[in-house]
Amino acid sequence: MLRALRTAALGMAGQQMNVDTIANNLANVNTTGFKKSTVEFQDLLYETVETGAGSALEGHEKPDMVQIGSGNRPVSTYRSFSQGGIAETGNPLDVAINGQGFLQIQRPDGTIAYSRDGAMRVNSSGQLVNASGLTMYPDITLPEGVSSINISKDGVISVLIDGSIEPEEVGQLELVTFMNPAGMEAIGGNLYSQTEASGTPMYGSPGEDRFGVVEQGYLEKSNVDVVKEMINLIVSQRAYEINSKAVKTADELLALTNNIKR
Amino acid sequence: MDINLERLKNAMLLQTQKNDVTANNLANINTIGFKREHTFLQSLEDETRNTLASQTVHDQGQLKQTDNPLDLAISGRGFFTVQTQSGQAYTRDGHLAVDEYGALRTTAGHLLMGAGGPLVVSQDGLKTGSVRISQHGEIFVDDDYVDRLQVVDFDNLENLQRIGTNLYVNNADPQPDVLEEPVILQGNLETSNVDPVQEMIHMIELQRHFESSQRVLTNYDRMLGKAANDISRYQ
Question: Which of A8, A43, A199 has its CB closest to that of B164?
Answer without folding.
Answer: A43
